[in-house]
Amino acid sequence: MIIAVDGPAAAGKGTLARALARRYNFHFLDTGALYRMVGLAVLKAGKDPKDEAAALAAARGLKPDLMHEQDLRAEDVAAAASVVAANLKVREALLGFQRQFAQRQPGAVLDGRDIGTVVCPEAEAKIFVTASPQVRAERRHAELAERGEAPTLDSVLADIHARDERDRTRAHAPLIPAKDAYVLETSQMTREQALNAAVAYVETRRTR
Ligand code: CDP
Question: Which of 13, 110, 113, 166 is the pocket-test mutation for ligand 1 (most atoms within 8 Å of CB)?
Fold first, then answer.
């Protein structure tokens, strides 16, 4: 079984997707980390994320050890990720790995922007997680503060707006709920409430 979890920046997709994977004993893939790794590799090479050749070289030569870099969760890396993610060739270079991962047994949970629409349109369960920009900015601000980064709430909100805008308006695999997705609005929910709602939905979609 494949569970697709999509949504805008800092909506709580990762937390929810991980919790679902634990609940069902499924494999979990954070696809945003792949785009962050490409963004980070480009920055480390001293290149501009808008440089398409540099981004494609980074995507094709992706080093798995970047996954463990502390910087992966930084806001400038997130911004670079969303710039390289607009590049169709970069997206294509990352597609095979994601699709293969999705086939893992007994099931897989993937979180991202285009899992239910492009990577796994055949997913049995599709959840689109959202929350208001203000709530998402507060959650990301707290997460960054915990990691020792201290940007202002306003700058986190501005980053989130800019990234959502780039992700929604791009030509390839834009951020949009799949037609058959279950939309989960979590602004007023605790993590536990969001998980319970997601599990109730997945139970209606279970194939085994
Ligand atoms: O954790 P957060 O929601 O802030 O971001 P992320 O999931 O780590 O994704 C970082 C960036 O990668 C996004 O802003 C997207 O531009 C891009 N991305 C994408 O294009 N497609 C995906 N399946 C996952 C991420």
Answer: 113
